[in-house]
Request: fold
Amino acid sequence: MGHLSKSHGCRVVFLVLGFLMLAVPGAWAGQPHFEAAVDLKSYYTSNLYHVSEKREDQFDTKNGPGERFHGMEGPGDFVFVPGLDLTWQWDVGKKRDLEVSFGADYFIHARNTIANYLKLGGLLAYDLTRRDTVSLDVDFVPERFWKNLSLEDPSTHLKIFEEARYRHIGLAPHYLHEWNKDWATGIEYQYATRDYEDPFHDRDRRGHTVMGLVAYNGFKHLDVDFFAGYNATATPTGVEFGIPVDRSFEELILGGRLCFHLPDHWKAKVGTKYRIRNYTTDTEADTTYFDRRDNTWTLDTEVGRKLGKDLYIAVLAGYGHRTSNRSDPTITADQVGYTEYRLGLTAEWAF
Reply:
C-alpha cells in the first residue's frame, strides 16, 4: 500500500472538511457564533506502553541499544495535555445548525519524552432536519512513537529492537436521529489508518468499523448511551524469522455511558468499553497470532463542576485490563495482557 506524506495527510483532513462545508446549502447566510476553548488535562498512568506484568520490571535491565526498552524510561508516567478548540456555529433554519470545529492537543510526557506527540482534529455537524443530524469527525496524528518493536538483524539473524513510529488518519461519518425528546439512535462508520515508518511497514493498518448507538434522556438527572460495533482491520503479510506473519484481526465492541446531572452544577460520567479481538491468520507456525483472542475492558470516570459561566474542572480516573489466550509455548502467563490505572485532573475554559 502507498504511504501518505505528513503534509499530504494534513491536506486530506482539511480538504474533506472544507469540501463538505461548501456543500452545505445556506451555511453562510449569516454571521456565525464563534467560541474558543482552552483546556489542560494532567494524569498519571501506571502503564503507558501497555506492557505485560513481567515486562514492567525490565525497563532498567533491557534498555541498551538494540534492546526492547532502549530510550524508554518506564511504564509509569505523568502526562500533560494542553489543548485548543475553535468552533463556529451558524443558524441555518428553525432549530437547525451547522457547526464546524478544529482542535489540537499536544501530549507531553514527564519521563518518556520520546512518546510526546501532536493530535489534530476537526468536526463538521449539520442538522438536516430538526431531528436528523449528520456529522464527520476527522483526526490526524503526524507522528507518534509507539514502542520498540522486534526485527531480524540482517547480518547476525538475531532479534533486535528498533523505534516504531507511525502516522494516523481517522475519518468517521455519523448519522443521528432523535425519535422524540427522550430517545435517539445513531450509526457511525469509522475508517482508520496507521502507517509505520521503515522498517515496520508490515505492521501498517487499515481499519473499518461500523457502530450503532442508542441514547435515552428520559430520566430527570441521568442520560444513558449504549453502543455496539464490529471492526475489521487488515495488515500486510510479512516474513519474520522465516515465518509468514499476518496481524489482521476482527473485533466485537460493546459499551455504554452514564451521565449524571447533579445539583449545584456538578456532573458525573461513567463510561465502559469491552473489545473481543480475534486474529485471523491461518498460519499455525505463527504462535504469536494463530488462533489468538484478546479481551480488553476499559472503564473511565469523571466527576466535575462548572464554576461560573465558562470554567469547568473535573477529576478523572480510569482502568484498563487485557487478557489473551496466546498459545506460544515459550512464554508464561505474566508475559501476555496488561493492566493500567489512570488518575488525573482536567480544566476547560471557554471564551
